[in-house]
Amino acid sequence: MLNLIIFGAPGSGKGTQSEELISKYGFDHVSTGDLLRAEMKAESELGKTAKQYIDNGQLVPDSLIIDMIEKVLEEKKPQKGLILDGFPRTVAQAEALGELLAKHDTRVHAVIDLQVPEEELIDRLLKRGLESGRSDDNLETIQKRLHVYHAQTAPIAEYYASKGTHNAILGTGSIEDISHRISEVIDKL
Ligand code: AMP
Known about the structure:
alpha/beta, binds adenosine monophosphate
């Protein structure tokens, strides 16, 4: 059973590459962004709180995210592997994840860090905004999200590098090429 983190800036292809991994390896998948959007749609208390942060390009507070992921980890019983997509996004979340997994006698096996130049990220997100209608895929919010990524999320790469689990992957080119690069890492685990 492998625990994988698919990591990268907004627009780096985490969702797309998660889908590739699900169909290739039969892994389970958890996206905190998808969970939060479902809560927003259901207009739950969590959804209403999250919306104020998401529409403003900010991170939802760690305590809410960690509670949410704790419940998911208790419920999910992945057979082959679990892909964490969009989580952790702060070093505090990464530390909490390590503790939660340790309770289940497991750990993070690999972090797949999709690296894409900033201009391409912005182009991809603007295009997605036109197609998906996501409320946070507009230029102003995209710029805020990229700033938050550099300030709060990118330091996680160092955190996992110090544990020897960080893998930088070139996130440009065709979906298949990127997926192939990721498989080279996974097949060695
Ligand atoms: P995503 O779909 O992963 O791009 O997430 C969309 C938005 O949801 C982010 O910009 C954050 O506002 C919020 N979000 C998703 N995952 C997290 C997380 N792990 N911690 C804090 N906020 C999150």
